[in-house]
Structure prediction request, 115 residues.
Amino acid sequence: MADISVALKQVSAGIQRSTRVVFITTDPARDTPAVIKQWLGNFDAGLPVSFVGLTGTRQQVEGAQRLAGVPVAQDGGQTHSTEVLLYGTDDLSRTFYLTGASPNDISHDLPIVSK
Prediction:
């Protein structure tokens, strides 16, 4: 989330306003809506759009992971993918970032998928 926040601060205000960051928990037992909201507040401060956090039942969360094409978390959500998916305006995943991707990688791609 920190890298996404930095990346968003590197792009134009128009792209910032049109970008939606959605975090989906892998640990719905601990990540209540209040916990997610407080945690995301550490990253979206100063941005024109708040980050969105989603949770649900374990089955709903695992279903969302399958639909997104990421590995389903194990150990009650503690062992999980660290992939970040970037969707275009057509709601299709256009690229993904693995551990080690930099904010510059993300800020480079945001204008491309925002067209």
In short: The chain has a mean pLDDT of 90.
